[in-house]
Predict the structure.
Amino acid sequence: MALNVELQQRQTEQEKLLAQKDDVSSQLQEVNRANSRLLEQLTELGQEKDKLQQELEETRKTADKRKAMLDELAIDVAQEKSWHKEELSDARLQHEKEVLGVRARYEKELRGLHEDKNRTEERSAHSSVTRGPHSGAGEPTADDQKPQGFCSIWAICIISQEAGCTGNTS
């Protein structure tokens, strides 16, 4: 009987061990399934990470290209601005030179006209003195027949032509 009891105890222990083995086996299967799911998730996350890194790299390249283009554009704009500034300065200087040239010619011509007028007046005064009071002093000379303001209108015409103006001077 002792052997039966011992046999029965061993069978009970074996059944318990088999039940434990089944439990452990079930747990192992669940852990393996969980590990498989985690491995799939890890793989998916790794792929997503790689994709995001690739997109980030492409975005960086695009940003670098855009920055380079903006830098180049800024340089071009600065050069263009500098060129326009130089051109404007040159144009102003040229304009000032032309104005000074026209002014100098105008003043020279005006001085010449004043000198001519003074000579004419001197001749007129001299001729009236030499002719005397009864030698036709009331008759107009060729210089006296010029209309008043003839010299100034003529000077304005010359100045307008030199400055490149067109149209009426009156």
